[in-house]
Every structure is written in C-alpha cells, then in structure tokens.
Design brief:
Elements lengths: L1 H21 L34 E7 L8 E6 L5 E6 L9 E5 L5 E6 L9 E6 L2 E7 L9 E6 L2 E7 L9 E6 L2 E7 L9 E4 L1 H4 L41 E3 L12
Parallel strand pairs: 1-13
Antiparallel strand pairs: 1-2, 2-3, 3-4, 4-5, 5-6, 6-7, 7-8, 8-9, 9-10, 10-11, 11-12
Length: 259
C-alpha cells in the first residue's frame, strides 16, 4: 500500500518537474540547508553545487505562493551574466525539490530531483556538453542509489542495479543502439556474475526501457505557450541571503533557459 502511494506521488512529482522547468520556474532556496539530502552510493562529486553559492553572483528569488518564503532561486554569474544554478521548491514546503546546475556555457551540468518530497534526492543526472552521460536513481526511496544508467547520444549503453540494497551492484545490463542485448546476474552475491541472459528483450516484451533524457529535456510540448502572462524576475542583488524576495504575478512567471 505504501509503495503504491509512493509510486503515485513520484509520478505526480515527475509531471510537476516537467511543467515547472518548461515554463521556466527556477530556483527556490537561499541556502544549501534547504536542499535535499544526497543519497548514499553516488559515483559523482557534489562540487557542482558550489555554483549555487552566492559568492560573486547575482541572485533573484521569487515567492510564488505569497507565504513569505522563496520558492524559486536563480543564481547568475556576475561577470558573464550566464545562469549558474536554479533551485525549485515545487510543493511549497520550504525544501528544495529540484537543483539544476549549469556550466560556463549555460548548458546543464547536473540535476538533482526529489520526486516524493521527503527532503531526500531520488535521482541525479550528470551531463557533459549538455547531454546526459549518467543517471543515478534511488528506486525504492531508501536514500541509497540502487541503479546506475550510463548513456551516450541519448540512449543507454549499460546499466547496473543493486537488487538487494546492500550498496553493491548485482545485475549488469548491456545495450546496443539503446536496445537491451544482455543481462548478467550475481545470484550468490559474491560480487561476480554467474548467470547470463542474452537477448532478454525478445523474451520479455513488457520490459521497461531505460531513459537517457531528463527534465532538462522538454517533456510536455506546448506547456510554456499556454502558461499565461509571464514576466522576467529582476535581479535581486549580490551575496547575502540571496537578495530581496518578490511575489510572483498571478499569471505565472518565465525565467527562460540557461544561456
């Protein structure tokens, strides 16, 4: 019952992420203490989060629902004017649900997502030159990564799964042109594969196809066009707690994409 509820919440959160990022809703935080707790087992560094700091940056914050707390935060590089970071509180609980970090060219570098609003990160996507190269997922919401997906040219090349939640992968999947062609299993959990399944897609037509896209890629075409009147949030100063909080207009707002 609980797992079904979490699945429904996660599905709803994914839809909210897609809509929010398409219409340009960006950062909603003034300090790292409001970001979700990072999961165990990540293979990536958190150094990218330093780009969300206020030092030598212009910061704009927006209070979307008028409760006096920033729901959206956008950090801009003082020298180049490019966006460095966005943070979003999707459900107005005071905690960050989406952190999107940009590189110096304005391309997405990393994205952290809390799908079930429990204050813990459920998915991390790592990008190179604006394209996803690895996704890490906590599929059972226990604050530990149990799935690693490696991507190239928008499709998976391989994946690893931790089916027993012991922190070690015990299933390895190989893909060709995005198609699953082989699975190796560690059935006795000694760290080595001891069973191989070839061409598994031919035997299981209902197998879930892994995705190498993310919320940074438009998921709901046409949403931004129908979002109603919007305005650009003004710059809110440099440093400090992130600048003055402004209230969002009734019709919604548009922050655009990283430049």
């Amino acid at each position: 019952m609980r797992s079904g509820h979490r699945a429904r919440v996660a599905a709803g959160a994914i839809a909210l992420v897609a809509v929010a990022l398409l219409v340009g809703i960006a950062c909603g935080s003034s300090s790292s203490s409001r970001r979700g707790e990072g999961p165990r087992g990540s293979r990536g560094s958190t150094d990218a989060h330093e780009r969300c700091d206020n030092d030598d940056a212009r910061v704009a914050q927006v209070d979307v629902n008028g409760d006096g707390r920033p729901d959206i935060r956008r950090v801009m590089d003082e020298d180049s004017g490019r966006e460095r970071c966005r943070e979003v509180d999707l459900n107005f609980d005071g905690r960050i649900d989406v952190v999107r970090v940009f590189d110096d060219q304005g391309r997405v570098l990393r994205e952290d997502l809390d799908f079930d609003f429990d204050g813990r990160i459920d998915e991390i996507a790592f990008y190179r030159a604006g394209n996803i190269v690895r996704k890490e997922l906590d599929t059972n919401f226990d604050n530990a990564i149990d799935m690693w997906i490696y991507c190239a040219n928008g499709v998976p090349t391989r994946a690893e799964r931790d089916r027993t939640s012991d922190g070690r992968p015990d299933t390895w999947e190989t893909y060709q042109s995005g198609r699953l062609v082989r699975i190796r299993y560690d059935t006795d959990l000694d760290g080595r594969a001891d069973r191989t399944e070839n061409d598994p897609e031919a035997e299981d037509e209902h197998r879930v196809i892994l995705s190498c896209t993310g919320p940074a890629t438009p998921l709901v075409p046409g949403v931004a066009a129908d979002a109603g009147p919007r305005r650009e949030a003004p710059d809110a100063g440099t440093g400090g707690a992130g600048g003055e909080i402004i209230e969002a207009p009734d019709g919604g707002i548009d922050f655009g994409e990283g430049e």
